[in-house]
Specification:
alpha+beta; HIT family, subunit A; 31% helix; binds guanosine-5'-monophosphate; 5-stranded antiparallel sheet; 3 helices
Length: 141
Amino acid sequence: MPTYDPNNIFAKILRGELPCHKVYEDDKAFAFLDIMPRAPGHTLVLPKAPARNILDIAPDDLAHVIKVAQKIAQAGIRAFGADGVTVQQFNEGAGGQVVFHLHVHVIPRKEGLPLKPPASFKEEPDMLKEHAAKLAAALSG
Ligand code: 5GP
């Protein structure tokens, strides 16, 4: 298997070298909005520790990421009046992974509304800012 590349785009976001719309941060995890959301509130939850995907992450870091994904899922229901949540996580190119720092997709869902196709729509920064603020407020409420 390939090894972790510290120059992947999410590593740059974690180091603050590239911008993002932050939703949540603690000592071991970071969450921000996907720039090409498949539904409003589509959030990516990452470990801060360098890990390519589920194949190389330390089990405790993985457990923490999943705990944070649960908090984001619950907040997404409150913030967006969602009826459900889709959680996805891809591993290696053959598994559908495009960015090679582990991330869990948390996508609020409305009854009867299909997901937009992957990478089909780049959201406006103002809308992402509004959605990140809604999620952050739901997380602290
Ligand atoms: P995956 O690796 O799980 O298949 O997909 C990577 C995800 O990252 C995609 O949903 C894509 O829209 C998102 N993405 C790619 N580049 C960026 C970026 O620069 N910023 C943010 N916030 N999301 C990104």
